Amino acid sequence: MSFQSYLDYIETRTGRSPAELHAEARQQGLADDTGLAPGVKAGAIIDWLKADHDLGHGHAMTIVAWIKGKRS
Asked: Which end of the chain is more exposed for a tag (fewer CB within 10 A), N or C?
């Protein structure tokens, strides 16, 4: 699967775009405008996405990559 395929699935599954999930992560203090918030590890975001959005590990990692700046 391509990175874009993962993003498309995530949006279909959650009803939220990667940008919206990034905004939600910022609201929760897990991320900032430049990536992960200081002191936050990827595992914290993965745990949040699994618990609140029912994503699997690979799809949650895709959002972590998005938050860190990956776009393709």
From this structure: C
Measured CA to CA, the distance from residue 20 to residue 49 in angstroms comes to 13
Domain membership flag for residue 72: no
Contact present, 37 and 30 (Cβ < 8 Å): yes
| Cβ neighbour number for residue 67 with a 10 Å cutoff | 23
pTM: 0.94
Looking only at the bridges linking them, the beta strands covering 31-32 and 35-36 are antiparallel
pLDDT digits (tens, 9 = 90+) for 34-60: 999 999 999 999 999 999 999 999 999
Distance between CA atoms of residues 30 and 40, nearest Å: 6
In the chain, the number of structural domains is: 1
